[in-house]
Amino acid sequence: MTRVWDEFAASVFDRISPQLLLFLLLLLAGVAGSLWYWYPAWVPRRMPRLRMPKIKRPRRRPRTKKKAVEETPAAPAFEPSVVLPDGTLLADRLAAEGRYAEAIRQRLRDLVGDLAAAGIVAPLPGTTAAEVAATAAVQRPAMAGPLGGATELFSEIWYGDRPALRDHDEHMRALTGEVRTRMTGGTP
Q1: Do residues 117 and 181 lie in contact, with contact meaning Cβ atoms separated by under 8 Å?
Q2: What is the C-alpha to C-alpha distance for residues 139 and 129, in angstroms, rounded to an integer?
């Protein structure tokens, strides 16, 4: 068996140079790997069905005209969104209990809710605080500084495992208040 293999390899190398053979083998491996990776996408699952075009029939609409009700959009209220039944804010209650990290997170949540209510951002599930801040900064550049500071403070405490203190909560309260002031068009 060894002699047959040696003679076969010698006859291949007599016709093809070793560099070209190596290149062809690498090309073959690349094509095979690509086909293996994208295999399900390019192979049809089943034969396509022939579809007959649907005939659209006109619908009869009632002849009565309904009066259009004009709705005026209400001005968005820039109030924190989580208010407890006794009238206190959830973030203030958390801070009073000494849970400063959760209070800071709640203040940022309330602020993002206000930004969404104002139509400045449209946060989607999975959107990070930094992405919300960047989107809001594009819409309203005046808010970039305090909103970036609030996002950075939140990230350092919540994701950086930094212990939150009363000073951090007060700083976050000041930053979110400044963002709300700039959101309404006022200057700090």
Answers
A1: no
A2: 15
